[in-house]
Amino acid sequence: MLPTLDELQALPPELLHEFIALTLNPASLAVIVRLVELGIIEQAVADGGTSLAALGDRDPEPQTDRHERAAVSLEMALELGAGLGLLTVLDGRVHATALSATFLASGSRLRLLGHVEHYASYLPAAAAIGRALVSTRRSRRSMWSTGRPREEHDGYFAARQAYNESRRAYFWDSSYLLLRAHLRRTLCGHRRVCDVGAGPAGFAALLAKCFPSLHVCAVEANLAHDDYRRRTEQALRAEGVEVELLGTNALLDPLPPGLDLVTFNRLLSGVPRDGVDAWLQRAYEGLVGGGVLAAVDYAMTGDPAHDRAVALVVAHWMGKDCHVLAKSPPSDPHDDKHQWGWSRPWHAQELCEALRRAGFQHVGFAPADGPFTLIHGTRP
User: Fold this and answer.
1) With the C-alpha atoms ordered 9, 15, 17, 20, is the resulting torsion angle positive or negative?
2) Which of helix, strand or coil describes residue 225?
3) Rg (the chain; Cα; Å)
4) 162 in helix, strand or coil?
5) Is the peptide bond before 329 cis (omega within 30 degrees of 0)?
């Protein structure tokens, strides 16, 4: 289940920032992944902890090389997990800390297991970041700009179905990171909101749960595909919220009318600088007077700690792209890998200038929980 608004507001930001920092470091992330794989966190949370003996009784073949390696694996995971502040080992019992019980236990509504799974996909490519720094070309993000025919857009999103489905848990679990950023400004005065590029509607679902008086729309091109839409509808029913799902392409089609809030989440970071005006214009046209565009994304702000997190995320992207392209160059003309390459991360001030250029007023930005930044503006 998604968290409540009270749970989000009660979450200590320093605890969240500590965890996010661990997941952006490949060494500590690898330890987290191993702890989850071994089921240690679940056992450490249940019934106030677990015994070392219970954790060690896993291999049916004692006195073998396999047994020794399993024992060493467990010992390493426990020792490094404790060193990273994820576990405590006391008097022969293993306990979860607030860090792991909050973010790694499957029963926690603040879990970030999908976030861990997503960033774990970058681990095999960590060593490729160095290669990426000397061999990456510029990106060719043609599907994120105007000028291409609709059938090319349709083919592009059809080719991305498997990837999008594999990231469903990430988009749902991490949706509250986005909402925490949006809470930098008040949401209580809005009535009709549209989340653009909504993915499986995790953020839209959380918004509807935390602000039940809102009418929430989710615009996502992948929702035009029956399987993706069906699974999204199932998730919304399980959460007990209502979200209007629209399987349209926001770059080519107008947004629903009468909106007083449009949200872009993790969207503009994929948009090239020669394409951003079209996206902002689409939001402007969909808003009523006094309506707000609020974007949460990976944007540099000038705050050193925050920008370090953004830089780490972008470095992971580049390493993974380099690694995957070397192993599996694209052959399908619709393959997303044709679009990959270096695109300089947005700076918040640049995006603010683009909002002003589109006609927005009262433009501003605020660093949120790293690596996210809130950028916003109001249609006069």
Assistant:
1) negative
2) coil
3) 22
4) helix
5) no
